[in-house]
Amino acid sequence: MADSLLLLKRGSSRSTWLRARKARSQLILGHRPRRRLRTLRWFGRRRLRRRLLHAQAAGADWREGVRLVSRAAAPRKPKTAVPRPDPRPDVAADLSTSCSAVLSIPPVRRAGPGRALVLLPLGQSFIFSGICRVTCLYGQVQVLGFNISPGQPAQDVYSTYTHARLNVTAVHYSVSEKSKKELKREARTLLRSHLNRDDRRWLMKNFSPLCSVMMLEHLKTSTVNFINSHPGLSYVFLQEVPPFQINLEYFTLRSVGIRREKKKHGLRLTESAFAVMDELVGISCEEADGCPVILVCGSQDIGKSTFIRYLINQLLNSIPCIDYLECDLGQTEFTPPGCVSLLNITEPVLGPPFTHQRTPQKMVYYGKTTCKDSFENYVETIKYVFSSYRREAPLIINTMGWVADKGLLLLIDLIRLLSPSHVVQFTSSRSKYMPDLTPDYVDSMDGLYTKSKSKVRNRGFHLAEFAENLEFADEDKESPVVFTGYKLMSVRSEFVSRKTGRNRESHNKVLRDLAVLGYLGQLQPPVPRPLRPLHGLTPYQVPFNAVALRVTHADVAPTHILYAVNASWVGLCKILDDVRGYAEGPVLLAQTPVCDCLGFGICRGVDMEKRLYHILTPVPPEELRRVNCLLVGAVSVPQCVLKSQRGLEGTLPYVTTDYNFKLPGASEKIGARETEETQREKVHPKPKLYRNTN
């Protein structure tokens, strides 16, 4: 062991062959490995030498990687060098060391078509890309902060190329005071109902105390299949990249739908992030009311969303549900973009946003991915959604990444309005300077709509101008609306994003399109039924006089309103006003209402003769009966839906080169000129171009 450490520390001037020759007597290098060593390049030799030395340090045969050498070939070591494994919990660290030494690489075994067994020692991680279903058969594993134990339902895990790769880690679990033989007998009994005899023998041969066994299965969902059906989007879940090493493990994982990834591609959080999460989980579980309000802020592309997913999963390990308030319009987590929503989360979040679109408890369709043009409407929208929070579970608030100039002042307004008990602020050396949002700093600064309250007692914020419209529970109405100070928690981020100043907008546009496609995937029948193109689905028929219309992001003339609605992404909303009574319609709204949004759809066509809208939506009919308003915003239908649907022949509906960009609302970016290539792909506004054939 000491010789191997000395070899690792020596300089690079000596040749690799001489260093390997030093260990020849102990590693038993034969003729074939010596010939292989001569044919490798310098980096290949360096990698092989490192594996040889690590195998020697672990007491393993380098030719098999995970098998122990025989007593005759293994180097003799003092009895005190490696502690004797003890199954008791108080020696978990020793067991972790011994397991990691024996199994330096997690073994993988094929367990049938589209199934694979993975045996993980304590503390080791399995980093992968792709999608699969994870079931823990023995021990305990953790994925993105969520613990999976035997007896729990299988979890669908999405490790996509748009985000950092996920890893499955074997974590410590309680073990009774039993011998290794008794533990193996218990594990064999537990696995008997899941595995055949050969698989159980393989596991028992490599079994060690505190190891975890998980089953990976091939996963197919209608949403994933729908996204993959569009050209160029299948790379999101799995890429055909030349593998680092082609072996039996590679083909086994490929049959599952995943591939092994290097450690540098995996998800990494800093120590400060873990420390903050541990403190927040402890506060949520120990407080009498158990309802802290946690606001997460920081600049864009710094790791806020990843931190929130990890925190949600960590909290779900201890408590049944968490409330989540979405205030980021551009990169929403559970809804299509352009929404402010409040959700009650009871299931773990094990993938990017487009894989877990959910129905909110309260949602307002703002209609734009930024609030720079109408701050007041944005604040009113957040007030309206926040009024539904009943303080029955911890609340996590996600904010925008715009924290400069007016964005910082708006963030100060939100802190005063939402009155968080904890503010988690992300900082990084790569991001722009952002002052520490301490209670004293927020207390002394003026926001966009609020003034400083530095002389208020207990550093409280008396929000008369905001609180008068807030709705509270009956037990809270008697107390005065005075919000106390919060605790600032800083996280130093080392998150490395692929986004740069040049590709940030296009990258965000792709993520927004994927979120819309993930929502539209709910229209597809469940697996294994085949996919149906959107133009082959039967839409709902909505009379003109049954719903009111409003374009939220631009001023559109009444004569052009149907051109703007046709082939557009629409929010299905409910307003308090009664729109019935109009003979023909359409009914137009003079102002954008702040109202409940029940879901989204595509206005597939407009029938001018029968005066009907054809709406395609996954919202159930019982909810659609409440819809009496259609809101059209700047969020558009992805171009791949219009151009790349299966079954389309001849001229593509809605796609034309003859388009008038001078019409208000015709461009996604108001007042911006667009290239000729973009103009050729724009949506045609004529309502009779697309006919309903169903």
From TrEMBL:
Composition bias type Basic residues, residue spans: 685-694
Enzyme class: transferase
Annotated stretches, region: Disordered: 672-694
Highest taxon listed in the record's lineage: Eukaryota
Any one Gene Ontology cellular component term annotated for this protein: intermediate filament cytoskeleton
Main function: Polynucleotide kinase that can phosphorylate the 5'-hydroxyl groups of single-stranded and double-stranded RNA and DNA substrates. Involved in rRNA processing and its kinase activity is required for the processing of the 32S precursor into 5.8S and 28S rRNAs, more specifically for the generation of the major 5.8S(S) form. Required for the efficient pre-rRNA processing of internal transcribed spacer 2 (ITS2). Associates with LAS1L to form an ITS2 pre-rRNA endonuclease-kinase complex and is responsible for the transport of this complex into the nucleolus.
Protein name as annotated: Polynucleotide 5'-hydroxyl-kinase NOL9
Species: Catagonus wagneri
